[in-house]
Amino acid sequence: MPRLDLRADDGMSTAEYAIGTIAAAAFAALLYAVVTGDSVLSALTSLIERAISVDF
């Protein structure tokens, strides 16, 4: 008589997909908020201005 392996995990369930999708969307929103913030824009502007004004 064949034995069934009930512990096999062939992939994610629908609930795991939902949690993963929500986590990815939250991370994307957080990353967008950080990148579009004033501090990041200010830091990038400062970096570019210093790079342009370097004397050779």
TrEMBL record:
Keywords: Membrane, Transmembrane, Transmembrane helix
Alphabetized InterPro entries for the sequence: DUF4244
Matching Pfam families: DUF4244 (PF14029)
Membrane-spanning intervals of the chain: 17-35
Domain of life where this protein originates: Bacteria
UniProt name for this protein: DUF4244 domain-containing protein
Natural source organism: Prauserella oleivorans
